[in-house]
Design goal:
- By secondary structure, this protein is mostly helical.
- The chain has one domain: Cytochrome c oxidase, subunit III, four-helix bundle (Four Helix Bundle (Hemerythrin (Met), subunit A), Up-down Bundle), CATH 1.20.120.80.
- It has a two-stranded antiparallel ribbon.
- Helix 3 runs antiparallel to helix 4, helix 3 packs antiparallel against helix 8 and helix 4 runs antiparallel to helix 7.
């Protein structure tokens, strides 16, 4: 394909090329909204039919780690926005610096998510043959707070009284938890890969005030992923939060 500098042959100006890229990105993000929308609808229906199981499942999540990841992603949105600004005003070093900061924050988010996933495996909260919603209270670790374990045990006893099939229904919650957060993490990994490419191109001096389309488009993608988490956090971590 014919190309003059950063301008591809089918476009007359860089501005027209940027507008076309923005339209394409917004169309892509619209399909992503539909994609995640199916999962949110599935969550809503199951939450309606099995409120007790979903409440118990939510209370097993680590609120501190979830809150930490929320703060991390909000900060990453800030650094991503700053990288777009820096590319617009021609600050090459700052563009690269903010992109590196965004990448580090994204990596930190994934690291915290790995810790959370490990907790679920340790507590037998992964859907399947060995799933057991009350495994932690039946096999407390030495570091667990006895008062917290006792409170959780009391809550589970009440939940089982309301929903005798709590163990089966809780698996629906954790299936959605792993499905939704796993898909979100996959988008984060894809975004991190694009950030690595942006950092390299920025260090080579490719982005200028007249051409910064890749930074802005990938920035839109990153903000979308962050917004998805803003919805996931209250839905998965805050429902029926008693403790």
């Amino acid at each position: 394909m014919h190309r003059t500098g950063e301008l591809y042959g089918q476009f007359e100006t860089l501005e027209q090329q940027k507008e076309s890229a923005a339209l394409g990105m917004w169309v892509f993000l619209s399909t992503e909204v539909l994609f995640f929308g199916g999962l949110f609808m599935t969550y809503t229906l199951n939450r309606h039919y099995y409120p007790v199981a979903f409440g118990v499942g939510s209370n097993t999540l680590d609120l501190k780690l979830g809150g930490l990841n929320t703060v991390i992603l909000i900060l990453s949105s800030l650094t991503m926005a700053m990288s777009v600004w820096a590319s617009h005003v021609g600050k090459r070093k700052q563009t690269a610096g903010f992109l590196v900061a965004t990448l580090l924050l994204g990596t930190a988010f994934l690291g915290v998510k790995v810790i959370e996933y490990k907790q679920k495996f340790d507590h037998h909260l992964v859907p399947g043959y060995h799933f057991q919603i009350d495994y932690r209270v039946q096999h407390p670790a030495p570091k667990d707070d006895p008062k917290e374990i006792e409170a959780e045990k009391e809550e589970l006893n009440k939940a089982f009284a309301k929903d005798p099939d709590l163990n089966a229904h809780a698996q629906l919650y954790f299936s959605l938890y792993f499905g939704m957060t796993g898909l979100h993490a996959l988008h984060m990994i894809v975004g991190a890969g694009m950030l690595v490419w942006l950092i390299r191109q920025s260090m080579l001096g490719r982005f200028t005030p007249t051409y910064n389309t890749p930074v802005e488009m990938i920035g839109l993608y990153w903000h979308f992923v962050d917004i998805v988490w803003i919805y996931l956090f209250p839905l998965l971590y805050l429902i029926d939060r008693h403790r």
